[in-house]
Known about the structure:
The protein has 274 residues and is an all-alpha fold. The protein is 78% helix and 0% strand.
Amino acid sequence: MLKVPGWEMSIVWYFFLGGIAGGAYFTAAIADNFGSRRDQAVARVGYLLSVPLVAVCGLLLIIDLGVPSRFMNMMLHLKFWDPMSIGAWAVGIFGGFTFVSSVLSFTSSESAAAFRRKFSLVGMLFGFFLAAYTGVLLSNSAMPFWADSRLMGALFLASGGSTGMAAVALIMFITGGSISETWHKIEVADRFSMLVEILVLAVFLAVLGSAAQPITSGHFAPLFWGGLVAAGLILPLLLNLFGGRVRALGAVSAVLVLVGGFILRYVIVMSIQG
């Protein structure tokens, strides 16, 4: 009999916040490298947001391990065959990228800014890894449903992109940045990220077939269909498409995307816990 991992809510939050961190950094790097000078506010918000999120991910990983020395041992000795060791290193390396990019986002030196832009393109890869790694970790386990979910890494990556953009958009709304044209660019980008996530989710469910029953039927079905699909993807997409220039609706859409991203990880992680 397979032993079910006794994961608590700390791991759900670790998966969720890691996805946002990767998505926010990606949003910042794209705005920094391919946007106009007006888009620098997006880059700064994305860089600064990713720093505390990665720090919290490290803290949650330490809490799950139970003993802080175990985390330090993982950082000192990389074990390619140990998924937790790889995760600890991913958090540590990506954390370094987020910190440097955040500091350099305040520079007025063009040479430093040019370095930051190139630096962020490399850091973006580690952000992608952190966002997708958690899904790959689950799909490579021996647990039923998880082991059948070979596209879970892609699903978590798509969700990380949409939640990261939503988080940046929400912060800009709260801080008054929604009055600029940059707000519209984020809305459009998040619209496409939600469409990608819906497409990946549809393929994910189609490939799984009846193996998806732990989340599509039974105890978790209302939360999956109502919380994730309806309220976390379809409704915010409709608000994004037809909300026009009502900024408050854009903020509501961003909140719903974040809630949906959390529900996705919650139902997947907890579906085998009972």
